[in-house]
Input
Amino acid sequence: MSDPLDLARARVPAASATREVFIQGITLRGRPFRPSDWAERLCGVLAPFRPGGVPAGAAPIGYSPYARPVTIGGVKYVVIDERLREIEPRAWDFVMNFARDNELPVLEACSLPEDPGR
Output
């Protein structure tokens, strides 16, 4: 399982911070979720959900700002911005059902900005 300190660093208890949920790629039974590129695939499905949407006939390039894959402590996660729930409730339900159906933990948190001193 991931280092709890790594996940704690991703949490900010500030009211002004964007709330996010982290879907962890370790099942409730303690096994890595497969396939190994599950996070990238899930974020690819959510790529069209972006501010202003995607123009008709255009293909989205890159991930949506509301869903992105990350690795924390060697464990893959998908970070979902809670604003997705307001923009497209069905997409939010799809992601939450995906996590539930695949027995993946969902953690409420928010990301910290990158440390410019690194």
The chain has a mean pLDDT of 82. The chain has one domain: 4-109. The two ends are 25 Å apart (CA to CA). Residues 4-109 form a domain with the Alpha-Beta Plaits fold (CATH 3.30.70.2340).
